[in-house]
C-alpha cells in the first residue's frame, strides 16, 4: 500500500510540472459490480450495488482540450449470489448473500473535452484493503458457515492491474462533472479459491461507475 501511495505522489508531481492549468477535487458515486472471465458457473453471480469515493487532480496539458487526471478512490466491488439450488453427488447446495471486495484504486486517465462532453481512458492500479464475505452456503438445507473475517485476504491477490474508460458531462468552469465509467481488470484476483469450490479461479472484477466530481481550479 505504501508503494501505491508513493506512486500517486510521483504521478501527480510529474504531471503538475507539465500542466498549464490544474484543479483538485473530490469524487463519489455508485458502483454496479460483478465478475467477468472464464467462469465455471457464470449464471450464479449477479450484479451488486456498492459505492466509491475519493480525490482527484486534473492537469491541463493542451488548454482546456486535453488533460491528465490521476485519482485515488476507495471502491467497493464484488458480486451477489444468485439464490438457486444445484446438486452435486446427491448433495443439494444453495448459496445466498454477497461478497464485498474493498479496494484502493489509482486510475490515471487521459481526458479529452469537447464542449460540455468529455471522454476519458487510462490504466488503473488497485490494492485490496479488505474482504467482507456475507455468503451463506446450505447443504441439504443445513447451514454451513462460510463467512470469513472482514480483513482476511486468504487466497486473493492484493494487487490488481486494470483499465478504466468513461464518458460524461462537465460544467463550463469544470467545477462539477457527471459521468459513467467502466473498470476492467487484466489479471485474475484469486490466487487460490478457498471459499467458492473453484468457481472464482479465473474471475476478474467488472465494474460500472456512476460518478459525480466537484473540482476547485487553481491558478498558475
Model description:
With 220 residues, this protein is mainly β. It has one domain: Porin (Beta Barrel), CATH 2.40.160.20. It contains one helix and 13 strands. The chain has one helix at 2-18, and strands spanning 21-37, 45-46, 48-62, 66-81, 85-88, 91-96, 98-114, 117-133, 136-139, 142-145, 159-170, 176-185, 203-218. An eight-stranded antiparallel beta barrel has the order 1-3-4-7-8-11-12-13. The radius of gyration is 20 Å and the shape is elongated. The protein starts with a helix and ends with a strand. The relative contact order is 0.21. The model has no long low-confidence stretch (mean pLDDT 83).
List keywords for this structure.
single chain, 220 residues, mainly beta, Porin, 8-stranded antiparallel β-barrel, 4-stranded antiparallel beta sheet, 8% helix, elongated
Write the layout of secondary structure elements.
Layout: H1 2-18, E1 21-37, E2 45-46, E3 48-62, E4 66-81, E5 85-88, E6 91-96, E7 98-114, E8 117-133, E9 136-139, E10 142-145, E11 159-170, E12 176-185, E13 203-218
Antiparallel strand pairs: 1-3, 1-13, 2-4, 3-4, 4-7, 5-6, 6-9, 7-8, 8-11, 9-10, 11-12, 12-13
Q: Residue ranges: pLDDT <50 for 5 or more in a row?
A: none
Output mean pLDDT.
Answer: 83
CATH fold node name: Porin
- Could you give a short account of the major beta sheet? 8 strands, antiparallel, barrel
What fraction of the residues are assigned to beta strands by DSSP?
over 45%
Radius of gyration, in Å, reads 20 Å
CATH top level? Mainly Beta
Amino acid at each position: 500500500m505504501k508503494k501505491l501511495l508513493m506512486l500517486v505522489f510521483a504521478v501527480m508531481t510529474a504531471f503538475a510540472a507539465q500542466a498549464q492549468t490544474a484543479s483538485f477535487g473530490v469524487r463519489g458515486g455508485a458502483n454496479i459490480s460483478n465478475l467477468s472471465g472464464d467462469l465455471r458457473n457464470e449464471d450464479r453471480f449477479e450484479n451488486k450495488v456498492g459505492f466509491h469515493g475519493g480525490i482527484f487532480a486534473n492537469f491541463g496539458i493542451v488548454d482546456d482540450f486535453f488533460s491528465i487526471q490521476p485519482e485515488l478512490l476507495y471502491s467497493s466491488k464484488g458480486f451477489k449470489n444468485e439464490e438457486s439450488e444445484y446438486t452435486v453427488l446427491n448433495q443439494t447446495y444453495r448459496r445466498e448473500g454477497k461478497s464485498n471486495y474493498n479496494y484502493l484504486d489509482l486510475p490515471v486517465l487521459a481526458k479529452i473535452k469537447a464542449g460540455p462532453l468529455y471522454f476519458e481512458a487510462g490504466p488503473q492500479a488497485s490494492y485490496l484493503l479488505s474482504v467482507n464475505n456475507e455468503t451463506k452456503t446450505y447443504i441439504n438445507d443445513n447451514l454451513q458457515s462460510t463467512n470469513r473475517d472482514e480483513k482476511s485476504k486468504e487466497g486473493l491477490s492484493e494487487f490488481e492491474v486494470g483499465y478504466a474508460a468513461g464518458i460524461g458531462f462537465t460544467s463550463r468552469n469544470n467545477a462539477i462533472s457527471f459521468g459513467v465509467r467502466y473498470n476492467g481488470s487484466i489479471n485474475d484476483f484469486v490466487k487460490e479459491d478457498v471459499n467458492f469450490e473453484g468457481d472464482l479461479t479465473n474471475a476478474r472484477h467488472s465494474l460500472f461507475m456512476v460518478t459525480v466530481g466537484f473540482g476547485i481550479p487553481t491558478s498558475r
